Amino acid sequence: MRDAAIQALARHLCDSAPQYFDLNRCHPVKTELVGKHRRHGSTVYRFRVTAEGACHRVVVKVPGNSTPRTRPSDERAHTPDRPRLFPKADIGVRAWLEHVTLTRMREYFEALHDPRFGVVRILDFVPEHNAVVMNEVDEPQVAVLLKSAGRLRRPLSLAKLGDVFRHTGAWLRIYHGLPPLGHTRRRQHTRVEFVELTQAFTMFIAPEHASETFVQTVSTQVETVALATLPAELPLGMGHSDFAPHNCFAGAHGRVTVFDTVGRWQAPIYEDLGHFLVALKSIVPHVQGRSLVFDNTTIRSLENAFVGGYFGSAPVPIMAIRLFEIQALLDRWCSMKYSLERATGWRKPIKHSLTIGRATFFRRYLEELVLDLPELARSSTV
Q1: What is the C-alpha separation between 371 and 382, in angstroms, rounded?
Q2: Exposed, middle or buried by CB within 10 Å (0-12, 13-18, 19+), for 161?
Q3: Sign of CA dihedral 18, 106, 62, 247
Q4: What CA–CA distance (Å, rounded) separates 188 from 196?
Q5: pTM, rounded to two decimals
Q6: What is the pLDDT of residue 66?
Q7: pLDDT tens across 203-241, in order?
Q8: Exposure string over 57-68, b if 16+ CB within 10 A, otherwise e
Q9: Rounded distance between C-alpha atoms, residue 68 and residue 99, angstroms
């Protein structure tokens, strides 16, 4: 956003503060921009709103990058799209859908009166800027806690992190039960769709892979196991579609608050589970072998806490979770390859060097998952 647009947002916050915070309109209100953070597909502005001796922290989320390219690259413009779990949301609609969904989530979770779960308080939607206004969650992201612990800065003990992960799994189970919204649609609700999409991912990766046969083997093995073990119709829930540690906040006593979803899809419940596990196991210190705290045993312990929090005393369908973990990993690999293909100029060699180690990690991770499939197929229940 340009400075004029940011100033217009600040004026809007100033004018709307009495409504947001139940203030006396006669008292002066001061707003101040205190931070800006770029996320994938959006920019988050942090404002301090001061009135009646109290300070309120407000976040304004605006779709798109704040500094768009002045001239699109011909190479970027003609790069064919990659296979995706779902089509990208229209940038002009996504912010409104997020406002609607987060508002409904707040109502849904507040009605539970469950101390394990926090809520994001949505304050406003500003249509002229496609901006969602919300209270800032003054708690660390779970991803930040994991990365800090990986550098031996341990803000939480591993036992307390286990509580956070159990509550995160429990949160997801309840969220999956959220009734569909007016804009929610079903997708990937059969095992045939799962197999077809997974094959599309492997076909996209295979041409650039040093061992194309390995990727083809993955595709064949996943198809065989999925058709033999997954039900024809997959259990669906309200899909988060980006359920990962960076979208979860950890508060006192392991309280978990989640945001950044638009409620577009009812999707297989295993999809969010698999996506979260891939994000957990791809935390940077762990991937680069620099973690002195999070070895494989600790990662497995956190995984068990998360999955256990979701399923409670019910049997864990580990085969289905692993299959969707493979799909989520392939999706992430496709995203990395596509990003490299679209890079131009001086960015391309830099991005290439950064992706080499991650691609090696993805292959090793994928090999481990695929090697476990036959044994899991013999012993698990979906």
Answers
A1: 18
A2: buried
A3: positive
A4: 10
A5: 0.91
A6: 42
A7: 999 876 556 688 888 999 999 999 999 999 999 999 999
A8: ebbbbbbeeeee
A9: 24
Helices (H), 73-211: 74-77, 91-110, 142-150, 158-176, 191-205
pLDDT tier for residue 91 given thresholds of 50, 70 and 90: confident
Helix ranges, 211-258 (H): 212-229
Q: Which helix (H) or strand (E) holds 116?
A: none
Average pLDDT of the residues in 251-272: 96
In angstroms, rounded to a whole number, what is the distance separating the alpha carbons of residues 303 and 283?
13
List CB contacts of 358: < 8 A, sequence separation 6 or more.
282, 287, 336
What is the pLDDT confidence band of residue 24, given thresholds at 50, 70 and 90? confident
Q: Which residues pair with 35 in a beta bridge?
A: 46
Domains for the chain: give ranges and CATH numbers. 1-136 (3.30.200.20)
Query: What's the order of all strands across the beta sheet hosting 185-186?
Result: 185-186, 265-268, 236-238
Distances (CA, A) of 211 to 179, 201, 207, 235: 44, 15, 9, 35
Pairing of strands 265-268, 185-186: parallel
Least confidently predicted of 25-29, 148-152, 225-229, 260-264 = 148-152
The residue type found at 346 is W
346-to-75, 302, 352 alpha-carbon distances in Å? 14, 39, 11
Beta-strand ranges (E) seen in the chain are 29-39, 42-51, 54-63, 122-126, 131-135, 185-186, 236-238, 248-250, 256-258, 265-268
Q: Cα(275)–Cα(188) distance, rounded to whole angstroms?
A: 15
Chain mean position to CA 59: 18
